[in-house]
Write a structure and sequence with these properties.
With 302 residues, this protein is mainly β. Helices cover 7% and strands 42% of the residues. The longest helix is centred in the N-terminal third of the chain and has 8 residues.
Length: 302
Protein backbone atom coordinates (compact mmCIF):
# COMPACT_ATOMS: atom_id res chain seq x y z
CA UNK A 1 0.00 0.00 0.00
CA UNK A 2 1.09 3.56 -0.62
CA UNK A 3 1.79 5.92 2.26
CA UNK A 4 -1.37 7.84 1.37
CA UNK A 5 -3.51 4.69 1.50
CA UNK A 6 -1.91 3.63 4.78
CA UNK A 7 -2.65 7.04 6.29
CA UNK A 8 -6.28 6.72 5.24
CA UNK A 9 -6.74 3.21 6.66
CA UNK A 10 -4.35 3.08 9.62
CA UNK A 11 -3.23 6.63 10.43
CA UNK A 12 -4.10 8.11 13.82
CA UNK A 13 -4.33 11.89 13.97
CA UNK A 14 -1.68 13.29 16.25
CA UNK A 15 -0.07 9.87 16.83
CA UNK A 16 0.65 7.78 13.73
CA UNK A 17 1.38 8.69 10.13
CA UNK A 18 3.13 7.10 7.15
CA UNK A 19 5.58 8.63 4.69
CA UNK A 20 7.65 7.48 1.76
CA UNK A 21 11.40 7.79 2.27
CA UNK A 22 13.70 9.06 -0.49
CA UNK A 23 14.68 5.41 -1.02
CA UNK A 24 11.07 4.55 -1.87
CA UNK A 25 10.55 2.60 1.35
CA UNK A 26 7.55 3.43 3.54
CA UNK A 27 8.17 4.55 7.12
CA UNK A 28 5.69 4.74 9.99
CA UNK A 29 6.19 7.72 12.29
CA UNK A 30 4.78 7.53 15.82
CA UNK A 31 4.71 10.64 17.98
CA UNK A 32 2.55 10.86 21.08
CA UNK A 33 2.75 12.54 24.47
CA UNK A 34 4.82 9.67 25.88
CA UNK A 35 7.44 9.20 23.18
CA UNK A 36 8.27 8.90 19.52
CA UNK A 37 9.52 6.19 17.20
CA UNK A 38 10.01 5.38 13.52
CA UNK A 39 9.57 2.03 11.82
CA UNK A 40 10.36 0.95 8.26
CA UNK A 41 7.74 -1.37 6.81
CA UNK A 42 10.45 -3.32 5.02
CA UNK A 43 11.56 -5.81 7.63
CA UNK A 44 9.11 -4.37 10.20
CA UNK A 45 12.30 -2.65 11.26
CA UNK A 46 11.88 -0.34 14.24
CA UNK A 47 14.56 2.29 13.59
CA UNK A 48 14.36 4.58 16.61
CA UNK A 49 12.60 5.12 19.92
CA UNK A 50 12.88 7.99 22.39
CA UNK A 51 10.57 8.29 25.39
CA UNK A 52 9.53 11.82 26.29
CA UNK A 53 11.42 11.57 29.60
CA UNK A 54 14.79 11.10 27.86
CA UNK A 55 16.91 13.75 26.13
CA UNK A 56 18.76 11.06 24.15
CA UNK A 57 17.16 8.20 22.14
CA UNK A 58 17.11 4.74 23.75
CA UNK A 59 17.16 2.78 20.48
CA UNK A 60 20.25 3.66 18.42
CA UNK A 61 20.28 4.26 14.67
CA UNK A 62 23.63 4.71 12.93
CA UNK A 63 24.15 8.17 11.43
CA UNK A 64 25.48 6.31 8.38
CA UNK A 65 22.49 3.96 8.13
CA UNK A 66 21.34 3.37 4.56
CA UNK A 67 17.83 2.56 3.44
CA UNK A 68 17.48 0.47 0.30
CA UNK A 69 15.15 -2.22 -1.01
CA UNK A 70 16.27 -5.67 0.09
CA UNK A 71 18.93 -4.37 2.51
CA UNK A 72 18.96 -4.35 6.30
CA UNK A 73 19.27 -1.03 8.14
CA UNK A 74 22.18 -0.53 10.55
CA UNK A 75 20.71 0.05 13.99
CA UNK A 76 17.23 -0.03 15.41
CA UNK A 77 15.73 -3.45 16.13
CA UNK A 78 16.19 -5.82 13.16
CA UNK A 79 13.96 -8.92 13.19
CA UNK A 80 16.05 -12.09 12.99
CA UNK A 81 13.79 -14.97 11.87
CA UNK A 82 13.30 -17.90 11.16
CA UNK A 83 16.91 -18.67 12.05
CA UNK A 84 19.57 -16.85 14.04
CA UNK A 85 23.11 -16.62 12.68
CA UNK A 86 24.06 -18.70 9.67
CA UNK A 87 21.56 -21.13 8.18
CA UNK A 88 22.23 -24.68 9.37
CA UNK A 89 22.58 -26.20 5.88
CA UNK A 90 22.34 -23.54 3.16
CA UNK A 91 25.31 -21.17 3.14
CA UNK A 92 23.72 -19.05 0.40
CA UNK A 93 20.77 -18.10 2.64
CA UNK A 94 21.14 -14.77 4.47
CA UNK A 95 22.50 -14.66 8.00
CA UNK A 96 19.80 -14.15 10.65
CA UNK A 97 17.08 -15.10 8.16
CA UNK A 98 15.19 -13.07 5.59
CA UNK A 99 12.52 -11.36 7.70
CA UNK A 100 14.49 -8.12 8.14
CA UNK A 101 14.87 -7.47 4.38
CA UNK A 102 11.46 -8.36 2.90
CA UNK A 103 8.13 -6.48 2.79
CA UNK A 104 5.67 -6.54 5.68
CA UNK A 105 2.12 -5.23 5.64
CA UNK A 106 0.23 -3.23 8.26
CA UNK A 107 -2.74 -5.19 9.60
CA UNK A 108 -3.79 -3.11 12.62
CA UNK A 109 -3.21 0.16 14.47
CA UNK A 110 -4.73 1.75 17.52
CA UNK A 111 -4.33 3.72 20.74
CA UNK A 112 -3.82 2.00 24.08
CA UNK A 113 -5.87 3.09 27.13
CA UNK A 114 -2.73 4.68 28.61
CA UNK A 115 -2.10 6.81 25.51
CA UNK A 116 0.56 4.64 23.89
CA UNK A 117 0.33 3.87 20.16
CA UNK A 118 0.03 0.32 18.79
CA UNK A 119 1.04 -0.87 15.33
CA UNK A 120 0.91 -4.48 14.07
CA UNK A 121 2.58 -5.77 10.90
CA UNK A 122 2.65 -9.18 9.18
CA UNK A 123 5.43 -10.60 7.04
CA UNK A 124 4.40 -10.90 3.39
CA UNK A 125 4.85 -14.45 2.07
CA UNK A 126 6.20 -14.72 -1.48
CA UNK A 127 7.87 -17.22 -3.79
CA UNK A 128 11.19 -15.82 -2.56
CA UNK A 129 10.40 -16.44 1.11
CA UNK A 130 8.90 -19.88 0.43
CA UNK A 131 12.11 -20.92 -1.31
CA UNK A 132 13.89 -20.42 2.02
CA UNK A 133 11.09 -21.37 4.41
CA UNK A 134 8.47 -23.75 2.95
CA UNK A 135 6.36 -23.98 6.13
CA UNK A 136 2.84 -22.56 6.36
CA UNK A 137 2.85 -19.87 9.02
CA UNK A 138 2.25 -16.23 9.92
CA UNK A 139 4.81 -13.93 11.52
CA UNK A 140 3.38 -10.82 13.21
CA UNK A 141 5.14 -8.00 15.04
CA UNK A 142 3.26 -5.64 17.32
CA UNK A 143 5.03 -2.50 18.50
CA UNK A 144 3.58 -0.41 21.35
CA UNK A 145 5.24 2.99 21.67
CA UNK A 146 4.90 5.03 24.82
CA UNK A 147 7.00 5.79 27.89
CA UNK A 148 8.16 2.20 27.43
CA UNK A 149 8.62 0.29 24.18
CA UNK A 150 6.96 -3.12 23.95
CA UNK A 151 7.58 -5.49 21.05
CA UNK A 152 5.64 -8.73 20.57
CA UNK A 153 6.77 -11.15 17.83
CA UNK A 154 4.36 -14.04 17.20
CA UNK A 155 4.98 -17.08 15.04
CA UNK A 156 1.79 -18.97 14.19
CA UNK A 157 2.10 -22.43 12.64
CA UNK A 158 -0.85 -22.71 10.25
CA UNK A 159 0.39 -25.96 8.69
CA UNK A 160 0.05 -29.65 9.51
CA UNK A 161 3.63 -30.24 10.66
CA UNK A 162 5.77 -28.95 13.51
CA UNK A 163 8.76 -26.72 12.69
CA UNK A 164 11.74 -25.31 14.56
CA UNK A 165 12.73 -21.62 14.61
CA UNK A 166 15.60 -19.47 15.83
CA UNK A 167 14.81 -15.80 16.38
CA UNK A 168 15.90 -12.53 17.92
CA UNK A 169 15.07 -8.86 18.20
CA UNK A 170 18.59 -7.61 17.42
CA UNK A 171 18.13 -4.33 19.29
CA UNK A 172 20.84 -1.66 19.26
CA UNK A 173 20.68 0.45 22.44
CA UNK A 174 22.00 4.02 22.65
CA UNK A 175 24.69 4.54 25.29
CA UNK A 176 27.16 7.27 26.25
CA UNK A 177 30.29 5.21 25.64
CA UNK A 178 30.89 1.45 25.45
CA UNK A 179 33.73 1.77 27.96
CA UNK A 180 31.45 3.32 30.57
CA UNK A 181 28.57 0.81 30.63
CA UNK A 182 27.95 -2.56 32.19
CA UNK A 183 25.15 -5.08 31.74
CA UNK A 184 23.65 -6.77 34.79
CA UNK A 185 21.17 -9.61 35.10
CA UNK A 186 23.19 -12.40 33.53
CA UNK A 187 25.53 -13.14 36.44
CA UNK A 188 26.18 -16.87 36.71
CA UNK A 189 24.69 -17.65 33.28
CA UNK A 190 26.44 -19.85 30.76
CA UNK A 191 27.23 -18.32 27.38
CA UNK A 192 28.75 -19.28 24.07
CA UNK A 193 31.69 -16.97 23.41
CA UNK A 194 31.88 -16.45 19.65
CA UNK A 195 35.01 -14.27 19.68
CA UNK A 196 38.11 -16.36 18.98
CA UNK A 197 36.19 -19.63 18.74
CA UNK A 198 32.87 -20.85 20.11
CA UNK A 199 33.53 -21.78 23.74
CA UNK A 200 31.06 -22.33 26.57
CA UNK A 201 31.82 -20.09 29.54
CA UNK A 202 30.10 -18.82 32.69
CA UNK A 203 29.50 -15.14 33.43
CA UNK A 204 31.26 -13.85 36.53
CA UNK A 205 29.74 -10.59 37.73
CA UNK A 206 28.40 -7.79 35.53
CA UNK A 207 29.36 -7.63 31.84
CA UNK A 208 31.88 -4.92 30.98
CA UNK A 209 33.47 -4.10 27.63
CA UNK A 210 37.13 -3.71 26.66
CA UNK A 211 37.10 -5.30 23.19
CA UNK A 212 34.95 -7.10 20.64
CA UNK A 213 32.17 -9.01 22.40
CA UNK A 214 29.82 -11.55 20.81
CA UNK A 215 28.11 -13.81 23.33
CA UNK A 216 24.95 -15.92 23.34
CA UNK A 217 23.74 -16.39 26.92
CA UNK A 218 21.56 -19.48 27.17
CA UNK A 219 18.79 -20.86 29.37
CA UNK A 220 17.91 -17.50 30.90
CA UNK A 221 14.75 -15.43 30.84
CA UNK A 222 16.26 -12.85 33.17
CA UNK A 223 15.69 -9.11 32.94
CA UNK A 224 18.82 -7.22 31.92
CA UNK A 225 19.83 -3.68 32.85
CA UNK A 226 22.34 -1.50 31.01
CA UNK A 227 24.01 0.74 33.59
CA UNK A 228 25.24 3.85 31.76
CA UNK A 229 27.51 6.10 33.83
CA UNK A 230 28.03 8.66 31.06
CA UNK A 231 24.36 9.25 30.21
CA UNK A 232 23.37 8.71 33.85
CA UNK A 233 20.59 6.28 33.07
CA UNK A 234 19.58 2.65 33.23
CA UNK A 235 17.95 0.85 30.32
CA UNK A 236 15.75 -2.01 31.53
CA UNK A 237 15.07 -4.95 29.22
CA UNK A 238 12.36 -7.38 30.40
CA UNK A 239 11.30 -10.32 28.28
CA UNK A 240 9.17 -13.45 28.05
CA UNK A 241 9.12 -16.30 25.55
CA UNK A 242 12.91 -15.94 25.23
CA UNK A 243 15.63 -18.08 26.82
CA UNK A 244 18.67 -16.60 25.05
CA UNK A 245 20.24 -13.15 25.37
CA UNK A 246 22.85 -12.00 22.86
CA UNK A 247 25.33 -9.30 23.89
CA UNK A 248 27.37 -7.74 21.07
CA UNK A 249 29.72 -4.89 20.30
CA UNK A 250 31.97 -4.97 17.20
CA UNK A 251 34.83 -2.80 18.53
CA UNK A 252 37.17 -0.82 16.27
CA UNK A 253 38.43 -3.26 13.66
CA UNK A 254 35.14 -4.94 12.86
CA UNK A 255 33.22 -1.64 12.96
CA UNK A 256 35.62 -0.11 10.45
CA UNK A 257 35.08 -3.03 8.08
CA UNK A 258 31.31 -2.59 8.24
CA UNK A 259 31.44 0.97 6.96
CA UNK A 260 27.98 2.00 8.19
CA UNK A 261 28.44 2.15 11.97
CA UNK A 262 28.74 5.96 12.02
CA UNK A 263 32.41 6.49 11.39
CA UNK A 264 34.80 6.98 12.98
CA UNK A 265 33.46 6.06 16.42
CA UNK A 266 29.68 5.69 16.20
CA UNK A 267 30.01 2.10 17.40
CA UNK A 268 31.11 3.38 20.80
CA UNK A 269 27.62 4.82 21.34
CA UNK A 270 25.73 1.54 21.02
CA UNK A 271 25.53 -1.93 22.47
CA UNK A 272 23.27 -4.77 21.38
CA UNK A 273 21.40 -6.67 24.07
CA UNK A 274 19.19 -8.99 22.07
CA UNK A 275 16.27 -11.05 23.29
CA UNK A 276 16.45 -14.31 21.39
CA UNK A 277 15.93 -18.04 21.09
CA UNK A 278 19.15 -19.36 19.59
CA UNK A 279 21.62 -22.28 19.71
CA UNK A 280 20.52 -24.38 22.71
CA UNK A 281 17.17 -22.59 22.90
CA UNK A 282 15.59 -23.09 19.48
CA UNK A 283 11.79 -23.24 19.62
CA UNK A 284 9.56 -25.98 18.24
CA UNK A 285 6.23 -24.54 17.12
CA UNK A 286 3.69 -27.33 16.93
CA UNK A 287 1.12 -27.57 14.13
CA UNK A 288 -1.72 -25.17 14.92
CA UNK A 289 0.18 -23.52 17.78
CA UNK A 290 1.70 -20.09 18.39
CA UNK A 291 4.89 -18.88 20.00
CA UNK A 292 5.34 -15.27 21.14
CA UNK A 293 8.56 -13.48 22.12
CA UNK A 294 7.85 -10.31 24.10
CA UNK A 295 10.35 -7.61 25.08
CA UNK A 296 9.72 -4.38 26.95
CA UNK A 297 12.32 -1.59 27.18
CA UNK A 298 12.34 1.28 29.63
CA UNK A 299 14.82 3.99 30.64
CA UNK A 300 15.32 5.61 34.04
CA UNK A 301 17.72 8.49 34.74
CA UNK A 302 19.82 8.60 37.89
Amino acid sequence: MSAAALNTQFGIEGQLSFREDASGLVVAEINNAQGRASLCLQGAHLMSWQPASQAVPVVWLSRDAKMAAGKSIRGGAPVCWPWFGAHATESSFPGHGYARTVPWQVIESGSEPNGATRLTLRLVVSDKTRAQWPHDCNLDLTVIVGETLRMEMTTENTGANDFVIGEALHTYLQIGDIGAVRVTGLEGCEYWDKVGGSNLRRQDGAIGFAGETDRVYINSGAECVIEDDKLKRRIHIAKSGSLSTVVWTPWTEKANKMGDMGQPDGWREMVCVESANALDNLVTVAAGARHTLIVEYGAVSF
